[in-house]
Amino acid sequence: MKAHYNKEILEASHMELVSFSRWMNKNHGNYPIIVGGWAVFSHLSKVSGELGKAKLGSMQLGFTPLGSRDIDVVFGSKYLMDMVLVNYFRANGFIAKKDILEVSYVKEVKTPLGVEQIFIDACTAKDVREIPDLKIKIPWNNAAKFNEKFELDKEAIIYVPIIELLLMQKIGAAIGRVLLRKTQASDYLESKIWKDCYDITNLLARLPVKQARLKKFLEQAKLGKHIGVLFGELKGQREILAEAKTSAEQLQEKIGI
C-alpha cells in the first residue's frame, strides 16, 4: 500500500500545497486550514531530521513523514470558498467533482512515473463528515477553533488542527472507511484505510498527546464506543506498527479508551 504514496506524486502534491498556500496568503491575507494527511505531515515533521521544516526530500535523518496525495482544506465561510474555487482552482487546471467533503477538485499532473491526479477537497467550517453506518456526523468547525500555525516556507503558512483534534478526525475517517468496506470494497478504499492507520499510528507513537483532550474530542464525536473497530484494523497492520516500534495495545493505552 505504501507504493500508492510514491515520492513523485507526494512531491507534486506538496508543490501544489505550497502554491495554494502562497496564493491564499498573498491574495486573501488568509492562512488556509489544512486537515487530513498534510496536517499529519506538518505535526510529524517536528520529529523528523529537520525539525519544523516541511520540505520533501530534505529530511534524510531519522523518521521521514509520508505526506499526502490529497490536499484537504476547511474554509471559514462559503463565500471565501466560492471565491477561491473560482479564482484559484479553476484557473490552475482543477476540475470539480463531488466527494467526501463538500466539493473535490482534481488536477492531472505529469510525474516521472506518468500522469497522476491531485485532489483538493474543500468544505466550510459549517459542514460535517458523516459516518452513515453509525449515524454519526463529525463537524469541521472545531478545525477553525483548535489549530496551530505551521510554516511551509517564508511565503506559505497554513493552520493545522491541534494533534488531539487531528487524531479524532483521522480515527473517525478510519472507522467510517473500515465499515464502508463491507459494502463498497475497492483497492482505493484499502489504500485510504492503510493511510489512516499509518497516520494514526505515527501520531500516537511519535508525538506527545494530551489524553484527556483527545478523549473529550472522541466523546463529543460519539466515537469512543466504536474505537474497537479501529484497533481491530490496526492489529492487522503489522508493518506499520513495526516501523513505528509500537503495538496496537500500546496505542490504545495512549488513547485511554
pLDDT under 50 segments (min length 5)?
50-61
Distance between the termini: 28 Å
The pLDDT mean sits at 89
SSE topology string = HEHEHEEEEEHEEHHHHHH
How many discrete structural domains? 2
Largest sheet: 5 strands, mixed
The number of E-state strands comes to 9
Strand content: 15-25%
Radius of gyration: 17 Å
Give helix % range.
40-55%
- Note the overall shape: globular
Strand order of the largest sheet: 1-2-5-4-3
- Distinct helical segment count: 10
**What structural category do the secondary elements indicate?**
alpha+beta
Please give a handful of descriptors for the protein shown.
257 residues, alpha+beta, 2 domains, five-stranded mixed β-sheet, 47% helix
Please characterize this protein's 3D structure:
The protein has about 260 residues and is an alpha+beta fold. It has 2 domains: about 1-160, no CATH class; about 165-255, no CATH class. Helix content is about 45%, strand content about 20%. It has helices at about 5-30, 35-45, 80-90, 140-145, 165-185, 185-205, 210-220, 225-235, 240-245, 250-255; strands at about 35, 70-75, 95, 105-110, 115-125, 130, 135-140, 145-155, 155-160. Strand 8 (about 145-155) and strand 9 (about 155-160) form a beta hairpin. About 40% of the residues are buried.
